[in-house]
Write a structure and sequence with these properties.
Chain A is mainly α and about 240 residues long. Helix content of chain A is about 75%, strand content about 0%. Chain A has a single domain, classed as Up-down Bundle (Ferritin), CATH 1.20.1260.10. Chains A, B: InterPro entries: Ferritin-like, Ferritin-like_SF, Ferritin_actino.
Chain lengths: ~240, ~240
């Protein structure tokens, strides 16, 4: 994952550490699921960026994108290490999330270099925002780890610069890319809903958080999606695209 | 690059450091060319392994191969760093080597997962052997750097294990893979000759070495190719393949 975000990541909800929180087996299961989902996301981001590096129009871009891919792999390695500490196997933890994420990528296969840049910029940011929202509900230790793996690899700025330059050169691109951005948002929400629907433990954390009875009511869920949608709109505008 | 090797890499030819050697502008140019060739080789190895990770038959293999790809990128970053120290741009240094290496990969595109493993095991080892031979003729500083970037990423052992298991399961694979190994060797030698023919400065280092009049005579050149060919044969035998 990469890309800046406008979702708050401060520690307003700082409450308890992993040991205390994991005394609840349901919470422990949810965190293993979350780490598995994130791990597959990073591995998948690595693969996609490696493909973008292969298709890059020049050697400078190729080397830069390859660096971002390697950084995503570094995030994956952190998650795999944490899963090993928790006696969980990364392959098993990732397995349930491979199909929905692969499906997202199949449904949003870029048809051009520019579309792949927008996908990297906008798509990863949506995922990052979503995970940041979940992170706020986690124990302190897991939250720190998750936020570290969501750190920007520098790809967002690289992609935004290239996209803005391309639109400046050929303003007719803007309409098509705006549609593309909306499609990415729609597919991302659709797959996120599928993941939450299929993973009760994960959904419970999203709804409740670590070791608290503090529930996520429907109004709060609405605000969550509103924040993600607004952050997406601001990013599209930053690219000069109609959200 | 990866893979173990039987080519001697000891410091029998240790003579001088970079500062002294680089007083000769032709030697300096040759090293910049060499670092450029290696850098593109690493970037290319990164890309190819990332593709292998994408096509891996299971999530465990995917994660492991992605790790090897990221390690190759680490080698690339070392070479880019050294080029920057020498006030050279990695993109410019790599440019002349992109075509022959891309051509090698086009001519040896694996048609199966097993062929891609053999290519990774055998092909990278040939390149590594070739660069180790060159390294023996370099100044101490450059040699140390080059040998470090030729370090095994763990991919050779991974690939060899999987290949041996596949042949054990279906011994009929052995004949086809043996042919594939010979084809890889032929294409590698052909592209290596092209690179040497097109790069006089590099050829001069291969022939002469850093800051010495010690020439590489034809008999020594013959022994060099014999060593590379023999090392290749031993690797094929290790896989249970007719060299």
């Amino acid at each position: 994952m990469s890309s800046g975000t406008d979702i708050p990541s401060d520690d307003e909800n700082t409450r308890i550490g992993w040991t205390e929180a994991a005394a609840d087996p349901a919470y422990r299961d949810a965190v293993l699921e979350l780490l598995g989902a994130l791990a597959y996301g990073e591995l998948s981001a690595f693969e996609r960026l490696a493909e973008d590096a292969r298709d890059a129009p020049d050697l400078t871009a190729k080397a830069e994108i390859a660096a971002h891919a390697a950084a995503e792999f570094g995030h994956f390695a952190v998650l795999r290490g944490r899963l090993a500490e928790l006696d969980a196997d990364v392959t098993e933890a990732m397995r349930p999330f491979a199909a929905p994420l692969d499906e997202f990528h199949r449904r949003t296969a870029p048809s051009s270099w520019l579309e792949s840049l927008v996908k990297a910029f906008v798509g990863d940011a949506i995922a990052t925002d979503f995970y940041r929202e979940i992170a706020r509900r986690l124990d302190d230790d897991t939250r720190g780890l998750v936020l570290a793996t969501l750190g920007d690899t520098g790809h967002a700025e690289f992609a935004a610069d290239r996209i803005c330059a391309a639109i400046e050169e050929d303003p007719r691109q803007a309409g098509r890319l705006a549609l593309w951005g909306r499609r990415l948002m729609g597919e991302a929400l659709s797959q996120a809903q599928r993941v939450v629907a299929d993973h009760d433990a994960l959904a419970a954390v999203l709804a409740g958080g670590a070791g608290t009875a503090e529930g996520l009511d429907l109004a709060e869920l609405g605000r969550l999606f509103a924040r993600i949608t607004e952050a997406h709109a601001r990013r599209m505008q930053r690219l000069g695209l109609q959200p």
